[in-house]
Amino acid sequence: MEIYLGECDHVARFLSECCSEDATGKIMLKELCLQYNAWAQRNDCLSLRSAELSNRLKAKDITVRNGTANQLYVYGFRYASDL
Predict the structure, then answer these.
(1) DSSP letter string, 23-74
(2) What is the CATH number of the domain that holds 52?
(3) In this model, does residue 52 exceed pLDDT 50?
(4) How far is the C-alpha of 83 from the C-alpha of 79, rounded, in Å?
């Protein structure tokens, strides 16, 4: 059952394929949502609005909060391509 749930968790799959955990990293939620939706389109998954993505990230105990210029940021991650 865990394998099936993991395959259905598109946000977790996106994070594992496109991002890396980094204690000092942060990604603007708006940008992460754009990247997620581009990935979702390529992988035949449903796209998400920023608020929906934020809620799913928070449900995984991922920190999403206001940062610079009152923008929402996802903390603890970097894009894998930034490494």
Answers:
(1) EEEEEEHHHHHHHHHHHHHHTT-----HHHHHHHHHHTT--EEE-GGG-EEE
(2) 1.10.10.10
(3) yes
(4) 7
